[in-house]
Amino acid sequence: MRFLKSDGGLIGVLPVLAITQLIGWGTIGLPAIVGRDLAADLGMSLPTVFSGTSVLYVAMGLCAPWLAKSFARHGARKVMMAGTVVAAPGFVLLSFAREPMLYFAAWIVLGMAGSATLSTGTYIMLNEVAGRQAKSAIGALMLVTGLSSSIFWPTTSFLSGLVGWRGTCLVYAAMLILVSLPLYAFAAPRRSVAKDNGGEPTQGVDAPAIPRSTFGLVVAAITLNAFVNFGLSAVLIELLRAEGLAPAQAIAFGSMLGVIQVSARGLDFLGGGRWDGITTGLVAGTALPVAMLLLMVSEGATWAVAIFILLYGAGSGAMAVARATIPLVFYDQAEFAKAMSMIALPLNLASAISPPVLVSLLTQFGSRGALGLTFACSCATVLILVLLSRRRPSMAAAAAI
């Protein structure tokens, strides 16, 4: 808890972000529970219904660069308030959908709102409060947001049984306006200038010049890992079944993933800022290709599947923290918002295309096709992180002490 002692402002902002991010990520997980009802009412196939999530990620990615100036000029609080105001009509629009066009239009609106309110905005707000000391705070927040599906899947199931999926959408719209918006408006901190180690304000310090090639490497590492993590998580059950596991076995192993991911984030959080995002990425990223290689050569042995779940769960859980904190190594408070907004475009596009790409490979070439591509992407990520580790600016090392 050292980071809380070093910056009391985090004590106030973390509960606000924890609640609003649980609501934000939990509510857009609606199709996971009511997908079949949506398909039946809208006359769409189940895969088409789930492609609404891909549309959301594409919209988030395309809107993110346009929000960079707004985050820098107005601060995360105002941008996230505006995004929440946009998200509520998105759920209202979804509740009125009677055909695919209106259904996908609703997901576009929700994606536009998500680019302002989900993940990127929270990292920017934490950076505004804590500067380069935000890494541990981001890790702490991820411990909570990793439970969004555990909380909102049963909530969605209960509400849909009570008022139907359309009524559930209206309840979620009201929740955004009555819970999330007031929290941002009255409980979230207004932008302040963070200080590193009690010295001068971060904005008053000239940041070292960061080459464009370094930013390109940061983007490449984050995007490649997002492709692997989002894609494998989406097709994990089918991947395990392709390895020869019975459906019940595949679900049993898959259900362990979330617990392992959250546990890995917890271990990184307990590090208390003793290492930066690149170190987290190197350790966690190395576990991923090892896990995939083991599964490829084991011919579906149960012991190998268990080790795969352990290594992949731990690696992907910690890499989620690394994706959010690697930019802290290179960018000060003034540049962090712009960098995160620019990174969000390729990251969200990779998140959108990875599930259909891996499903296609799984269908045409079996598990080896999907594992082969993710293995190559994971190896490339580790190599890029090695290069980034050699480019750490000296001020990042000083800030982490």
Automatic annotation (TrEMBL):
The keyword Membrane applies. The chain crosses the membrane at residues 12-34, 46-67, 79-97, 103-126, 138-159, 165-187, 215-237, 279-297, 303-331, 343-363, 369-388. One of its GO terms (molecular function) is transmembrane transporter activity. The keyword Methyltransferase does not apply. Keywords: Membrane, Transmembrane, Transmembrane helix. This is MFS transporter.
